[in-house]
UniProtKB/TrEMBL annotation, chains A, B, C:
It comes from the Bacteria. InterPro entries: UPF0047_YjbQ-like, YjbQ-like_sf. Pfam families: YjbQ. This is Secondary thiamine-phosphate synthase enzyme. It comes from Pelagibacterium luteolum.
Length: 140, 140, 140
């Protein structure tokens, strides 16, 4: 059994879904693991992770719209407003999605379904540098 | 340290929670692992995973009802409608729940609490064949 | 490769976020693992796990308020009411957050971001004894 860890920086340009499936695949390839488990971890509380459809970009736009409506900017009852109107909604949207996702590795590949892509879900309005960590464990 | 992977097909008959706790337990038994970790992964973006109460079926019905109200069919602003009115709500409900869940294994058993069952949460209206992958790692 | 498992009891005093970052760190230290993966698992269906901001306590209060509004006590359509008005909302809030979270371990430490803390999110109104299990795997 072997393991490896890799940190990846994702540069975001405002709220939305940024695909990191290639980074996932490259990490598995570089690890030499043939069968095992890869875990993705997001080191922030105002962006998150999501596996979602990689085909029609409308799905990502609609997901973004849904979360914008569920936890909109300017909710009157919010007390944490020091970093602006998009700050607390960002924490809420992160809480509603994922901080970590684990995916089995089969025959050197992530066992993603045909339509699954891995995304960093940015919830802040301004550009950010985000840090994601991949951990791979398994048999080479 | 040993590991094993198993793919399971779940046949769904419309939106709702389908219990797969037996498949989880059988996978652990077959692996021979006495202590370790099992990870469940759902290979779709319009169904998901959930650990929820396995006692009163009303809990599952109420969960289904809640998500039906939170992301209902026919939201006017949705643009991704090619596969019907239940398609985008299914992606949203999947995003709000889990694509992967990891459970420790203690003394040959999944460390589930007394009232915890593992469910595939189908969000589409029509029957589907769903693929779930179990990865087990630990000491035999 | 080595692994270890530890069960921790968390005593809650009503709905809210209870930090368990210290328990996470202590578990990793005691395991002797230098690089690897730690998985946290919550053995209940009416409380859950969340990684969120550990700086301004207003963030936790606002998160609590958001979920109280999204799935409030006394929703008229709920059928599972045997354990009181806070029971089904607790299951719903648990479904919307996490039952398990996995975090890479780098240089003997959980790879948490600067502002990330690990929390048990209690959704019931009365005090409860909650059980959380940590599983650590990696290289000593």
């Amino acid at each position: 059994m072997v393991q490896t860890t890799r940190a990846v920086t994702v540069r975001t340009r405002g709220a939305g879904l940024y695909e990191i499936t290639r980074e996932l695949k490259d990490t598995i390839s570089a690890s030499g693991v043939q069968s095992g488990l890869v875990t993705v971890f997001c080191r922030h509380t105002s962006c998150s992770l999501l596996i979602q459809e990689n085909a029609d970009p409308d799905v990502r736009a609609d997901l973004q719209e849904f979360f914008s409506r569920l936890a909109p900017h300017g909710m009157a009852w919010v007390t944490h407003t020091t970093e602006g109107p998009d700050d607390m909604p960002a924490h809420i949207r992160a809480a509603l999605t994922q901080t970590s996702i684990s995916i089995p590795i089969l025959n050197t590949l992530a066992a993603l379904g045909t339509w699954q892509g891995l995304y960093l879900f940015e919830h802040r309005a301004a550009p950010h540098e985000r840090s994601v960590i991949f951990h791979v464990i398994g048999e080479a």
